[in-house]
Automatic annotation (TrEMBL):
<keyword id="KW-0812">Transmembrane</keyword>
<dbReference type="InterPro" id="IPR039447">
    <property type="entry name" value="UreH-like_TM_dom"/>
</dbReference>
<feature type="transmembrane region" description="Helical">
    <location>
        <begin position="136"/>
        <end position="158"/>
    </location>
</feature>
<feature type="transmembrane region" description="Helical">
    <location>
        <begin position="78"/>
        <end position="98"/>
    </location>
</feature>
<protein>
    <recommendedName>
        <fullName>Urease accessory protein UreH-like transmembrane domain-containing protein</fullName>
    </recommendedName>
</protein>
<feature type="transmembrane region" description="Helical">
    <location>
        <begin position="164"/>
        <end position="187"/>
    </location>
</feature>
<feature type="domain" description="Urease accessory protein UreH-like transmembrane">
    <location>
        <begin position="11"/>
        <end position="214"/>
    </location>
</feature>
<dbReference type="Pfam" id="PF13386">
    <property type="entry name" value="DsbD_2"/>
</dbReference>
<feature type="transmembrane region" description="Helical">
    <location>
        <begin position="6"/>
        <end position="33"/>
    </location>
</feature>
<keyword id="KW-1133">Transmembrane helix</keyword>
<keyword id="KW-0472">Membrane</keyword>
<feature type="transmembrane region" description="Helical">
    <location>
        <begin position="199"/>
        <end position="219"/>
    </location>
</feature>
<feature type="transmembrane region" description="Helical">
    <location>
        <begin position="54"/>
        <end position="72"/>
    </location>
</feature>
Amino acid sequence: MPMTEISLFGAFIMGLVGSGHCIVMCGGIASSLQMANSTLKPISVGLTYNLGRATSYMVAGALVASLGNSFAKQNTEFALSLKIFSGVFMILVGLYVMRLASSLKWLEQAGKTVLWQHLVKLNKHLLPINTYSKTLLYGMLWGWLPCGLVYSALTWTLQAPTPWYGSAIMLSFALGTLPSMLIVGQSAQQLSRFLNHTLIRWALGSIFIWYGIYLLIIASDRLVH
């Protein structure tokens, strides 16, 4: 794997396997936008909304990577602690996806209190969503919706060697969520039922847990040596 032990493909897979959560969190918003406006093409609305969402993810990734990189350069022990932090977070994500623990609820609540309750007030300036520019801005706004999976992906960007790499990690994550976010109506309900099936949730959650254990093993090896 590259310098950070976090590959872009890994971030894509994280977005893909977390799609069930994405459908619950903001799939309804994307679907309603695609179906509500008769003057705009549904597929174009979906792509524009998700472009806005991905843009916000990329901005957040660049900011977090800049923060993590600046501290890591000053302290190698801090850089190692970031790897341990990412591994622990992946395990928490796995437990969250498997619904064995509400391990990320506190983080979503913190994001809602600190940031989202203020940003959501901007909604009124964008409604009704009757142009592609408004759709893009609406997607950018909802890209800051408190989401445990997004925050977990951002912990990976803490290790990114550059802000650009941090941005690329979040773009890969966004691309992983894209298929489920573009599906509307009955197909979305069927996909949601599939992804939220107990066996599927356990299988996907196990991927996160094993990846978290892998990161902890890498970090422990470097700690020993």
